[in-house]
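Design request, tokens follow.
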């Protein structure tokens, strides 16, 4: 059994990612949740967001706290605002982009956990996104 996890403001600093200048701060790792999920707080600046991709090992869910993001889910694009929840089942192509002029803020999580290393590796070697993605069961698409 794992211990409860409490993260207070500024206890886990966000780090820049390879995803268009997004800033991600880990809230709970698989080690802290017995592998059930990995949860992240994200700030997505204007123009930010990752390329389209598919997760083969985990579902991903998003809760938008502020701002607006445009999501590609399968073949459909949809603009989502604050207070909106989105669940993306594994195997579904998706991405999010901030096409506005203001930052957007959200919480997103993966179930089960296990993808944490992808973010650490991409932070160090963003040029290796395709190879790193393959190691974690993620396929990237750069034409969408």
């Amino acid at each position: 059994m794992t211990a409860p996890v409490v993260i207070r403001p500024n206890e886990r600093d966000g780090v820049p990612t390879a995803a268009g200048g997004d800033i991600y701060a880990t809230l709970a790792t698989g080690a802290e949740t017995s592998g059930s999920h990995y949860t992240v707080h994200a700030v997505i600046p204007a123009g930010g967001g990752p390329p389209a991709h598919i997760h083969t090992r985990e579902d991903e869910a998003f809760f938008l706290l502020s701002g607006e993001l445009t999501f590609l889910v399968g073949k459909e694009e949809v603009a989502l605002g604050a207070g909106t929840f989105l669940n993306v089942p594994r195997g579904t192509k998706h991405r999010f982009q901030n096409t506005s002029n203001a930052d957007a803020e959200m919480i997103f999580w993966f179930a089960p956990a296990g993808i944490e290393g992808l973010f650490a590796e991409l932070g160090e070697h963003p040029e290796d996104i395709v190879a790193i993605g393959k190691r974690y069961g993620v396929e990237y698409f750069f034409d969408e």
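Comment from the thread starter after seeing the answer: thanks! The helical segments are 116-124, 129-135.
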